[in-house]
Amino acid sequence: MKIELPYLDRIFTLEFPDENLLALAEPNEIDAAGDSLSVLRNALDQMSETGGKKGQSLEEFLQGGKRLLIIINDATRPTPTEAMLSVLLPAVEKSGIRKEDICILVATGAHRAPTEEEYRQILGVHYGSFRANCVHHDSKKDKDMVELGSTRNGTPITLNKRLFEADRIIATGSVEPHYFAGFTGGRKAFLPGIAGFRTIETNHKQALSPAARSLALEGNPVHEDMMDALPLIRAPIFSFMTVLDKNQGVAAAAAGDLMASFYQAVKIARKIFCVTIPAKADIVVSAAKFPMDIDLYQSQKAIDNGALALKDGGTLILVSSCRDGIGDEAYADLLAQASTPEDAIERIRRSYKLGYHKAAKMAEVSARAAVTAVTELSEEQLASLFIGKAGSPQEALDTALAAAKKRGVTVPKIIILPDGCVTVPDPGE
């Protein structure tokens, strides 16, 4: 059996006996109705229904508007922003809204600001025309935030003031499973996308709840916070959401009412990304594809999803370049201070800071299995996080196979997740 895994500018090849493979768990194929631009245009034409009625068209939505805010994702997401702008902007131009009254806001949440190269990547052919209109959200810039009240869970809501300077809002994004918010997209454009730091930190603390997990919306406190923030926004919102396939092409799109389009996209995302596996495996190889391989903070999603397919006492192998390093340092610092994964979990329960939810999820996996990474991070960095290092996926797999056989497993079973950040394995237990 040979499996190829992309890594930076090269391809790693994994080889092992066919009898060891339990599953190659990839996103499911669905038939897209044409190329990416056709799918996007069709979504704008069809609209998502609310209350059994066809939604307001984009042209109708923009009518009478004077100041437009377009919310877009940053470079840590594979959202096809360039293509989405290509089908949105002609209607915007026809609406009569002046170009100088259009603001494109990059919803970075608590992430760093985009580099100029990333602005070029995000905007694509629109970089020359709209770079001057494009700004990034800074969650720690208090003067840019508006305080709006609290959610049912007590989370204080502060959102970017540009929301309240616009009389029309277009929220764009992509919908896929998220390991504690249930799904990305929709309401996430606002929280955490353009929320204040304290809001994001308090919301993400809810990720410690057992109800905060992949695919879960009802009863998920993280999702509840996001929903509670929406009625606090005064201007009308037009939503444009995509669902990508395993090759990051546009499989489907939904537009119109924010929540109707979100739930429509969720149904499709479940079909694509929730993958049935025959059983849990002794070894799971989970790869973080570009752009989620940017750092360990983002790549952790591949660890969390991979753990769903892993037996207790097994080995999880993460394949991710982590080209920008660890990412948020707070969770790495906490893990480095802890003596064991169990100690880390106890420290998090006592005192939470933004990023600690990552540490908690990672520690939970390390407490029940061995974790090894193929990455550009150093052996010392990884050791402080309770993660081993291997020079290649083959080296990591050979070591894991030997360890399993030493435990008495005659034919260790392997599951491969080539797109581990978004593939949610379901062992049907």
Automatic annotation (TrEMBL):
It comes from the Bacteria. Residues 9-212 form the LarA-like N-terminal domain. InterPro entries: LarA-like, LarA-like_C, LarA-like_N, LarA_C, Ni_dep_LarA. One of its GO terms (molecular function) is lactate racemase activity. Residues 279-421 form the Lactate racemase C-terminal domain. Gene3D superfamilies: 3.40.50.11440, 3.90.226.30. This is Nickel-dependent lactate racemase. The gene is larA.
